[in-house]
Amino acid sequence: MAEPTNTPVPASTPRSASPVHPGGPNTPIVPIMMTSSLPPTTSSPSSHSRQPSYHHRPRVLHIGDPVRYNPATYIALCGQCEVIRPSAPERERGEFIRALRERRWGDFHAVLRPFWGSGGEMGNWDEELISLLPPSVRVFASAGAGFDWADTKLLGERGIIYCNSGLACAEAVADFAVAMIISTFRHLPWCIGAASSGDPAAFATCHRDATARSHNLRGHVLGIVGLGNVGQQIAARCRHGFGMEIHYYDVAAISPDVESALGGVIARHPSLESLIRASDCVVLCAPAAPGGTSARPLIGTEQLSWFSDGGRLVNVARGSLVDDEAVADALEAGKLLSAALDVHPNEPHVSARLRALAVAGRVMLSCHNAGGTVETHRGFEELSMRNVMAVLSGGNPITPVNLEYLR
């Protein structure tokens, strides 16, 4: 079967670590050989996996829309497992809880959500839902990079490996992030808005004044919060393509091989404050707290005070990491020269103050689009299904995020 199209920076190890909420390293993607029966004839499970024993084929609860991009992989999954897909009404939280309580789907062994746009009708996977899962469940594999809607710690304590699909969207998010970084240095919202207004005076003013505020990227310091899969790809693009200096803040230091692949000396900072104070532009690539339990945003009034006057902020991670009102304050006060935000705390609603600033050309706003490509969706499906098949056949999960909590 085809490999996911997005791959990490050469010499790097795919992972889901966060500078705020540490996670364990992930196993690099490798081809998984499919067999017609379970368990496979040869298997070398790691300490995180165990040889399964089934009287019948393992049962997979497929929540969400049908698989649309990887039919061959889905056929392989159905050949190994009994796949059950609840109807849309059954996925609404009240009915979903009722179905779990009455064991409507029996003792299933995996939860599969291969498409990010559906399968989440039941809302957050919190203690109420997780406590109702049968003891047979061993893996929950989902499309998407973020997992703040699922209590991955509680899942791990129940013996359930949670696997995300962040590796599949890393390339798309990195491309989009670079466009947003460029926007903060070149004031693209102002330029686009003035040209689109049809107002000759607005055109002339932008043509004259934007140049006095715009800068080349070369030589400027890009501070990356979270140097995982996405962060490394952003670093590679901005270092090799634009000659930026790369600084980062993360719980884990990158290896010398990864540093070499990223273009040489990469400065690691001991704290978020240290990184922000040293950076001309800060880009957020860190996941939010597991289970959505973050008590306060990562970037608020205090953190914005650490930016040098005229600093720049980019967020392609999670909306909950940023206090939008504090960002609006910083933009209005001139503390931030510009910002670019793809994600928002209360999606699909966007801060009215930020929308007004976007009209004025001070901030670039988008609709959680950074990872949204056909290639990403194809990779989400492929990776989520392969995670399920790997675990249920006694092998290693490909992209786990909660092994440190696993009992």
From TrEMBL:
Signal peptide: none annotated. Transmembrane segments: none annotated. This is Glyoxylate reductase-like protein. Keywords: Oxidoreductase. Residues 179-370 form the D-isomer specific 2-hydroxyacid dehydrogenase NAD-binding domain. Residues 1-16 have a biased composition (Polar residues). Residues 125-402 form the D-isomer specific 2-hydroxyacid dehydrogenase catalytic domain. The keyword Oxidoreductase applies. Residues 35-52 have a biased composition (Low complexity). CDD domains: Mand_dh_like. It comes from Hapsidospora chrysogenum (strain ATCC 11550 / CBS 779.69 / DSM 880 / IAM 14645 / JCM 23072 / IMI 49137). It comes from the Eukaryota. One of its GO terms (molecular function) is hydroxypyruvate reductase [NAD(P)H] activity. GO terms for cellular component: cytosol. Residues 1-55 are annotated as: Disordered. Belongs to the D-isomer specific 2-hydroxyacid dehydrogenase family.
